[in-house]
Each structure stands twice: as C-alpha cells, then as structure tokens.
Design the sequence.
C-alpha cells in the first residue's frame, strides 16, 4: 500500500529518481566491462535481472518517489542484496588474481578499480534502502523522531535550516565512497548494529583491495 503522510504536517518533497537511477545503471553497465573470468555468473545475467526489476519501479515512479507498494519495496531490497552479494564474489575473484599473478598487471588493476567502484554504488543503494525504512518512509515528517535511524548525518544536529532535511541517494553515495577510502566513518555515523556491520565489512573490502592493488602496482613498476 501507499505510505501515508500525516495530515497535520505539510507533505515533504519526494526524492527525485535521477540519482539512484544513474547509480544503478552504472553498476549494471560495469558488469559488461569487468572481464568474464572475474565474474561468478555470465556477464549478461545480473544486468538483465536488474533491468527487469527496475522496469516496474520506473513505471510506478517515473520521476519522483511518490508511490510505494509492498512489492516495489521488496524488489528494491532484493535488487540491493543481489548487487552486493554478486559483487562480493567478484571481489574475491579479483583478489585471487591479484595474489596469484596469473593475469597481466594492467588488466587486473583495471578490474580491481571497476569492482571497487561497483562496490561503492551497491553499498550506497543498500544504505539508501536501509535507513529509516527507505526513501518513502524517510520523507515523512516526524519519522526520524519516532523510528530509530541507522545513520546520523551532520545536517541532523539541529541547524535551523535543516529542520526537515533528509538525505537523498547522492548523500549515501558520498559516505559510501568515503567509507571505502577512509576505512572508517567520516561525517556520517552508523547508529545501529546492522549499519555498523555493513559499513565495517565495506571498509574491510576496500582496505584489502587497496592494499593488494598498491602491492601489485609496485611489483609492476619494478
């Protein structure tokens, strides 16, 4: 059913689709670029599944997220889980080639960079769907006070101009990127166990990839 908006409060501005749409399209396109031997499935399967899951959601919300159904919520959750899980297997395969040295240096370094980028966007999508029940529930005024939040942004610290501010997909993409680079929270703090577990695991994969890429690059230079 459609998520209701309290009648005693003004209706918040729904989030636009463009940011998350571009992010998901980039991830799906990367599966056609990452070498097949670095992927656990034929390279067309994940993009095809992702496209099939996106079509009904785009029909439901072509420009802004103004409607939510139980099936659309579950489709988004399943899509996020697929992207993250498949990406983790791809990371393992890239790490294997980085350690074994069976693949040419430039090729495996490019694969590592592509899978690193896809990991940033995939986790950003999961964070975006996880926090406060997703983009629809998050836009309800008062929801942040009545439901435990997973992430606390600097804008939530009481500045008068940010009273009704809620993060969009780009905000989650930014702190997903910073978590993969800094290996720790920067300006966004995880508050729940599931948020800490996801951010901790993402930071660990980012650290392992970066350490192995630097090591392989040094070997290539020498």
Sequence:
């Amino acid at each position: 059913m459609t998520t209701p908006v309290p009648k005693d409060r003004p209706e918040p501005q729904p989030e636009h689709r463009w940011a998350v749409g571009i992010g998901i399209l980039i991830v799906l396109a990367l599966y056609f670029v990452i070498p097949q031997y670095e992927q656990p499935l034929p390279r067309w399967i994940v993009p095809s599944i992702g496209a099939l899951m996106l079509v009904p959601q785009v029909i439901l919300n072509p420009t802004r997220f103004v409607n939510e159904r139980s099936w659309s919520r579950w489709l988004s959750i399943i899509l996020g889980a697929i992207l993250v899980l498949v990406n983790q297997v791809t990371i393992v395969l890239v790490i294997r080639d980085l350690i074994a040295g069976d693949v040419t240096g430039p090729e495996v370094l490019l694969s590592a960079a592509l899978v690193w980028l896809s990991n940033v966007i995939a986790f950003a999508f999961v964070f975006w769907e996880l926090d406060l029940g997703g983009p629809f529930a998050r836009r309800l005024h008062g929801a942040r006070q009545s439901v435990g939040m997973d992430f606390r942004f600097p804008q939530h610290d009481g500045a008068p101009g940010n009273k009704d501010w809620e993060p969009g997909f780009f905000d989650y993409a930014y702190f997903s990127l910073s978590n993969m680079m800094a290996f720790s929270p920067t300006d966004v703090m995880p508050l729940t166990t599931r948020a800490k577990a996801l951010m901790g695991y993402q930071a660990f994969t980012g650290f392992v990839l970066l350490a192995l890429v630097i090591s392989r690059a040094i070997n290539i230079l020498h």
Observations:
- Confidence is low (pLDDT under 50) at residues 5-9.
- Residues 70-100 form the longest helix (31 residues).
- The chain has one domain: 18-221.
- The radius of gyration is 19 Å.
